Amino acid sequence: xxxxxxxxxxxxxSAAHFITFAGKCERLHGHNYAVGVYLEGGLxxxxxxxxxxxxxxxxxxxCDTLDHKFLLPTENPQFQVTFADGEVEIRVHERxxxxxxxxxxxxxxxxxxxxxxxxxxxxxxLRELTDSETLSVVQVSVEEAPGQAASFRIENGQRG
Length: 160
Fold this sequence. Notes:
Blueprint: E1 2-17, E2 20-21, E3 24-25, E4 29-41, H1 52-66, E5 69-73, E6 79-84, E7 87-92, E8 95-100, E9 104-107, H2 114-128, E10 135-145, E11 148-155
Parallel strand pairs: 1-5, 5-9
Antiparallel strand pairs: 1-4, 2-3, 4-10, 6-7, 7-8, 10-11
């Protein structure tokens, strides 16, 4: 089995978020996230696990959808969200936030943690890699600060 890693200074995004935990809500803040990808599989007819250039383009495109946005988890039952008149209103506990809709990226996860972002990006990347039949593992890591990263691994095409 062959493997490859892609970790580039260009595979990143800056985004704002807050997370809820144990009935509490963090303050709104942001990170400069870095994304890494690990693939395993057999070789293609061109002797690649996957073309590095094409892989980086796909990962960069995914990062760009999140860049300079407020990341809104759509699966969090603590969030009351209203979309109206080009704005997004979010109520969580005693707090209320209003953002321009164009500055919000909805993400189908329960919380905007590095773990949930890694799982989301791994699933999105797997959907983008449909042109490869030789892949057996897609793993994405999301670093939210130097030395702080989480990864999610999808094996044998399962979406986890």
